[in-house]
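Input structure tokens:
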């Protein structure tokens, strides 16, 4: 494949999988499991679904980060010469690291919810009034993080588009003249 087509494709597809999977999980999986008749099944089923998704999401995050290396190498000259490229690269890197951290922490909370699933709940991220303080805290945090992850992953996708726009000949010329 010419240039960085493979690395850029992996980079974009892995970010899309991270975004789409996390959004589907929050809306589809967590929403559907809240409809289970047995309160103990709600968190158990959500946990099972997230466990099945975790290897795919881990692979997507890993592939996203790994594919960055050839992209950075191919564009190393632009960082020094084109105005804004280095700044936007650091912004995207920061958002990616924050998103990966939130995703990892969410997985740790999910494991805790899974361990306490026998207590039952109103939904995957909605504790029952009788839930232990530990389960309530984990579910309340997950309720926030289930939306933070697709926001951060979506921002990574948008920043990837920003980088793509910066490579248009007109924008490269303007960036070189500005610097």
């Amino acid at each position: 494949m010419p240039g960085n087509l493979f690395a850029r494709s992996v980079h974009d597809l892995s970010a899309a999988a991270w975004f789409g999977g996390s959004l589907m999980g929050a809306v589809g999986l967590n929403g559907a499991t809240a409809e289970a008749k047995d309160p103990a099944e709600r968190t158990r089923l959500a946990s099972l679904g997230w466990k099945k998704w975790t290897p795919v999401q881990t692979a997507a995050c890993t592939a996203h980060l790994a594919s960055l290396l050839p992209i950075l190498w191919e564009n190393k000259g632009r960082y020094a010469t084109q105005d804004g490229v280095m700044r936007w690269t650091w912004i995207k890197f920061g958002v990616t690291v924050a998103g990966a951290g939130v995703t990892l922490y969410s997985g740790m909370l999910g494991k805790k919810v899974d361990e306490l699933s026998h207590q039952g709940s109103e939904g995957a991220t909605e504790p029952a009034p009788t839930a232990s303080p530990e389960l309530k805290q984990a579910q309340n945090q997950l309720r926030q993080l289930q939306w933070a992850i697709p926001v951060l992953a979506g921002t990574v996708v948008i920043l990837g588009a920003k980088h793509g726009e910066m490579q248009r000949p007109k924008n490269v010329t303007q960036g070189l003249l500005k610097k």
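The chain is about 80% helix and 0% strand. The CA atoms of residues 6 and 146 lie 30 Å apart.
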